[in-house]
Model the fold of this input.
Amino acid sequence: MPGDAQKTFYLETFGCQMNVHDSEKVIGTLLHEGYRRVEAVEQADLILYNTCSIRDKAEQKVFHRLADFKKLQAQGKKFGVLGCVAQQEGEKIFERAPHVSLVCGSASYRNLPQMLAQIEASGAAATQNLDAPKPEARNLIRITGLDDRETDKCFEIEFTARSNPHRGYITIIEGCDKFCAYCVVPFTRGKERSRTSDSVLAEARQMADLGYTEIQLLGQNVNSYRDPAGKPTSRKSFAQLLAAVGEIPGIKRVRFTTSHPRDFGRDIVEAIDAVPTLCDHVHLPVQSGSDRVLHAMQRLYTREQYLERISWIKSAKRDISITTDVIVGFPGETEADFAETLSLLDQVDYDGVFSFKYSPRPNTPALRFEDPIPDAEKARRLEVLMAKQKDSQMSSYKKYIGSTLEVMVEGRNEARSQWVGRTSQNKTLNFSAPEEASPKMGTYVPVRVIGSFPNSLLGELVV
Ligand code: 5AD
Ligand code: SF4
Done:
């Protein structure tokens, strides 16, 4: 096919690592279908947005983008909305943005080739008349791939187009069955479905053969992993799968996210202790330190149970870093509840906290809860929490000064003449190196820590 006649696409991704990885699979699918990826909207025949609806702000981004580029529709370009907003809003997207041709949720990506063929067969969009009163008269092509919670297949393809040659994601479980009261994910990503451990391990081995050294296992809730095939005795638990990936020759680091405290077993900590390639890091979202709020959130654990898991992690032989997610201003959260969250931060001494103002989401039970917290109060609590955590990291990160840590070289900051590395604990370690000893991207090098900030460390390459 001559280069300039090739179909082109532009894809922008919003949201979490799951979305980033879904996009890698979507890109792989499009390349396989003969499309070429372009970096500017103006150069593309097909413009895709892989969207996030975890909070309202994220959801609004896609509608802003669609409005910004609406005028390109007159040039025959087609627009597609993928991901969580697509699944959540469905055909309503066509009403709000009539120039959209494709609305496809993540559980339908395996049907993308047929959907793309339909879009291509629909001919030039320039023949469309957006001012006509009825969709038929407007000659609009409208294709939807929307699955309900009955979807039971994973999106497994061989042509994932990974964006980084050294570290990459592997999905082990899709969907979520937890139904936390605030969360839209069970509605946008469908029910839990695990891939077979054989298929996960085959993908990990293939990545190792291609030169990948770091693998991150992904799932909305990796601890719910259930190996769906094989004899009951040969099925792997999540901890066994983690260890098996870590034992693949060539793999130097394995990470996993996200863990749900309810299903987080001690066997995961034992695996981290036993297998050196498993990274010293657990992300264990707590959401609140108050039992009352945890109950209202339907998180299925108490503060005490959560702290028990933290004590397992802290009693490991290795120094495992712990990070978390917190929501402030959940309906009914009192000042005393919030104080309990702050005291939990003190008790755990987290290495990192991602904190969010509660955002009401469609379909979720919390939407109907009384006693909403005013936005200004949510903002105040968020600020208090973030300031506290910053202070805490400011002092706790100091303990690394003087130690030598191994980092994977991830980037270069030319302005500061520094290299950017990541430690096993998932901390950013910016470091300098003599020009003659410049490290290569993706390699692992020892760095001596000479300074610390609330969110990163500073060091020098050990030569
Ligand atoms: N409002 C605010 N934060 C939310 N999260 C999930 N749903 C909401 C919501 N409705 C946060 C949780 C979750 C993280 C990925 O996003 O903390 O762990
Ligand atoms: Fe959402 Fe809860 Fe499922 Fe996480 S476990 S995706 S917060 S419903």
